[in-house]
Amino acid sequence: MTRSERITIAVLWVFASFVFVLLYGPAVLVATLSFFDMDRGQIAWGSFSLAHYASLLENKSILAALGNTLMVAFTSVAIATILALGLAYYMRTGERRGRAYVEFIIFLPFVLPAIITGISLLVAFREVGVDRGLTTIAIGHIVVVIAIIYRMVMVRLEALETSQLEASADLGATQFQTFRLVVVPQLASAMVTGALLAFTISFDETLVTFFLAGSDPTLPLRLWAMMRVGFSPEINALVTIVLLGTMVLATLGALSLRRGIAKERA
Amino acid sequence: MIRWSLVRLAVYGIPTLLILCPMGLFLLSSFWSMSGNKMSHSWTLANYRAFFANASYWGIYLQTIKLAGIVALFGLVSGYIVAYLIWRQRGPLRYMLLLFSVIPLAMNYIVKIYAMRGILGFNGVLNSALVWSGLLAKPSTMFVFNQTAVLIAMAVIYLPFAILPIFLSLERIPHSLVEASADLGAPPGQTFRRVVLPLSLPGSVVGGLFVMVLSLGDFLTPQMVGGSQGFTFGRAIWSQFGMAFNWPFGAALAVMLLLAIAIILIAARLLTRYRRTS
Predict the structure, then answer these.
(1) CA-CA to B10 of 20 to 30 Å: which in A41, A70, A231, B156?
(2) Per-domain residue ranges for chain B?
(3) What are the distances in angstroms from CA B267 to CA A37, A72, B219, B261?
(4) Given pLDDT bands bounded at 50, 70 and 90, which one contains residue A39?
(5) Of B64, B111, B112, B122, which to mutate for an interface test with A (greatest number of A Cβ within 10 Å)?
(6) CATH match of B53-277 with 1.10.3720.10
(7) What is the ipTM, given to two decimal places?
């Protein structure tokens, strides 16, 4: 490497470090503030405590919102996983003329901004006469996450050799037996990865949820309502817990994805 | 036989019912109107006429596209630099850096807006830092509750969405090409300019366009950090479903947004095709 190239790379690294500060700075700032009291807009550095975390546990509305979020996430991810698995398996076994059509449709909510998906479902629910509530939120989340699980499962299915299915059929297994005993065990890791990613997305989903929520808010909506009133150390504490939770989930997802790739290569 | 047609009905019916039908209804509803607090199903072009007749909607529309374009450009350039540096690494450091640039994707979106507001405010961290370092004599209002604040906040929030696609498009370059270029005597700088950059650029631009689509549709970030100065098209749509309560007009505005996005996506499609054929 010449001198000028080395200098260029060094400058790029300085810039990249700045980018990482941008990415993590906000989160670190909020987490730090959650341990201290505020005194007239200034941090009181002497006031380190976990008091704000303790007071969260007594806040009924936050706990209720957390419960709603978890319920929506579990239900929608479970249903979306089953749907995605069924769709992908159907498309993989045989020449399906409609494959491009179905893939186009389920990827639409993924490609289009959330505001379009939100308005569409809102208008549809209104026309059918369904009141907004946790059920409509869950349906919205199914629509949002199904593409990512489908993609994960499909990548794994395409790597699966058709001869395995043929061998299973030759040996007298019914289609369902082949599916249960040959296909599903090999898809397990892809399904877990997809479900983890989908769970993270559902847990954080805000822009579609805003259009579909009734009187029961999910955690992001509750957070939004609290933030509009202003800053408080309690919000910082809540935000820190949410950040930690989603980051752990995402890391688990990334690790399971990596394990899946490693297995494929082996 | 009946069982198979049931399966087929489910496979094609469920996605159609869950996704395509609502989107169709949404398009239709942009031609409806409001009577009292109900949508009336009589056809009208009044919503679109109202959009085209009102210069302030036009202005916000173009301004928001410009805003999203700048956010995307920032994402493309800084995302490319980060992705390129990660791509050059080998071993565990590479995987770790990649993980660190992906984790922010999972950080709660509302939380990020909240943090950005704390940073951008008049008494915020950025102003305090600028005053403390002596760059400013007193806190500036340049990035408080206006378009600049929205721009900075969106640029930071949507930046991680650009890094991953750019990294993947770098990853698709066969390593043998880079080696061949080096074997033929090209210094690293030349290899980058003549081999790596041209091959990864189309995919990277697609990553940038993805960021543009995300920031076009955002309505909460501008609401939180934009104040009255930082009005965007997303907020205009959202207000029709809240305070203003005119769903058909809101739907028509959203269709206009969709139109802009369709153009962006077609451009992205053409770019990827260009990459495959060349």
Answers:
(1) A70
(2) 53-277
(3) 51, 36, 24, 10
(4) low
(5) B111
(6) yes
(7) 0.90
